[in-house]
Design goal:
Oligomer: heterodimer
Radius of gyration of chain B: 20 Å
Number of helices of chain A: 6
Number of strands of chain B: 1
Number of helices of chain B: 9
Number of strands of chain A: 3
Strand content of chain A: 15-25%
Strand content of chain B: under 5%
Strand order of the largest sheet of chain A: 1-3-2
Structural class of chain A: alpha+beta
Distance between the termini of chain A: 20 Å
Helix content of chain A: 55-70%
Helix content of chain B: over 70%
Order of helices and strands of chain B: HHHHEHHHHH
Shape of chain B: globular
Order of helices and strands of chain A: HHHEHHEEH
Radius of gyration of chain A: 16 Å
Distance between the termini of chain B: 36 Å
Structural class of chain B: mainly alpha
Shape of chain A: elongated
Amino acid sequence: MPSSDADIQNVDRLIHEPSRLAIMMQLYVVESADFQFLQHQTGMTPGNLSSHLRKLEDAGYVEVTKEFVDRTPHTALKLTRKGREAFKEYRRNVKRFIEKFPE
Amino acid sequence: MVKIVTKQDTLREVEKKTYMSYHQDGLLDIIIGLYALAFGLGIVADKILDFSFAALMPGILIAIVLPIWIQAKRKITLPRIGYVNIGTKGSNKLFALLLGLSVAGLGVFFLFTMMTFQNGRPEWIDTILFQYGMIWIGLGAAVIGSLFAYTMGLKRLHGYGLLTLALFVSGYFLSVPFEYLLLVEGSVIITSGAVLLARFIRKYPLPKGAPHNAVQ
């Protein structure tokens, strides 16, 4: 198998989906964010965002915490250590693949 | 999307966009403008009432204005865009900038005091500082505005710095008193902040079921 094929095979397909990639990118650059903030930043509908977050949570990439801020319920979302490492690995694999891609 | 995520500067753009969304409410502008306005009014009051209101300004900033800003963020901004913990990276940079500026300011003040009380200041320093003081203030504001704009990613702070420079340079040549320049500057920045706030409230209405004490 050519090495470029191997690189793309190693790409994490869970993160590779565009909506989930947007979520991971957004959570990567912050400590944590709530559902509403993430929805505004990604432009997704609440249902769509929930669905993707569930998948990322099931994979152990995102941690969901329900808390109260000023007596208002909030869902706080943050990347787990596993999620951060997975995202870094994803970036490395994609970068390696793209660098070998012919012009 | 896939290609761009590999670039470090794209993540930096996402970071900046996140930080900017937190400051697109115009509240920072209103605070800066209020402070300039208050300083100007303080100097006017000093002259009329022979009492140093201007000297109270730093204390007023910390004791009154900052808590108002924090509360306004909690009641107006956060219920509309949601909560985000940006983390320590951004605040570390800001802290480093503030520390650097404070150290530089203290250093200049110390040098100035040493020169004054030891051998007296050279005449050329007095000429440069006091004769062209307004221009130095304008230049200083432009530089500080640019530093904060770069650190915080808020481009409009460049504009405010340049506004100060333009106002104070023209004020110098037109012999406009310092306090009136502050009043004009404060009014312009407050107006800009109010426009941003109105736009922000229209763009981000409160979600349904928002707490009754959040500002509509």
